[in-house]
Amino acid sequence: MKRLLAFALGLAAFVVVPGMACAADNGFSDRICPNATQLVRDYNTQSAKSDTPVDDILATLNKVVAAYKTCAGEKLTQGGTMGGAEASLQVGLGVEGMHYAQIRQAQFYYVMGKIERLLQNFNTSRDDLQNALSLVKDTIDWRTSPDNVLRSNNVNVGSSSSHSATTDFSNYRESAMQIRDSTLAELALLPKPPGAASPSPK
């Protein structure tokens, strides 16, 4: 039962965020975070086999998350963190490279949270899903510095004037919002923790 459960989730996991690096087959290669490539391939291999123990899949997922966390830290030591808008928005470098790695972490946390919920490990599921939300929040909230936007568009950030979205928000913001929405929907399926307050009547 547990093995079949993990198998089904593994096949469906990356339908959640279209347009991101594909992890649907073992030809997967992550050019932005190459340190995660083999671990994602391992996960793909495990999740494609119906007899893989779910604990093995969860262990690999944790390794994948750790690899993307390492990558996120490394990206901030590369180019694109101190320059202007153009440099800071290179998708594989600096802050945007970090956003990518954080979104990948969140994506795998979502998968773990879903598996743990179906195994009725509700507290672990909630922790995984909350980790996913925290990671995507950084990308959703991120903006280029006002000076960079003003210099390239001659408008104020947040004004009603028209300006280029690519110099305002992260390139990964839309994907981050999709993960956030899927994660919130998954959290809503969990039983309320003991002592949680009920919504106030309207």
Structural overview:
- The chain is mostly helical.
- The chain has one domain (2-16, 30-187).
- The protein contains 8 helices and no strands.
- Helix 2 (37-47) packs antiparallel against helix 3, helix 3 (54-75) packs antiparallel against helix 5 (94-118) and helix 5 (94-118) runs parallel beside helix 8.
- It is flat, with a radius of gyration of 19 Å.
- 36% of the residues are buried.
Lay out the secondary structure:
Elements: H1 2-12, H2 37-47, H3 54-75, H4 85-88, H5 94-118, H6 122-141, H7 146-153, H8 173-187
- Give the overall pLDDT as a whole number: 76
**Total strand segments:** 0
Determine the N-to-C terminus distance: 42 Å
Provide the succession of SSEs: HHHHHHHH
Q: Which structural class matches the secondary elements?
A: mainly alpha
**What general outline do the C-alpha atoms trace?**
flat
Outline of this structure?
This protein is mainly α. It has helices spanning 2-12, 37-47, 54-75, 85-88, 94-118, 122-141, 146-153, 173-187. The radius of gyration is 19 Å and the shape is flat.
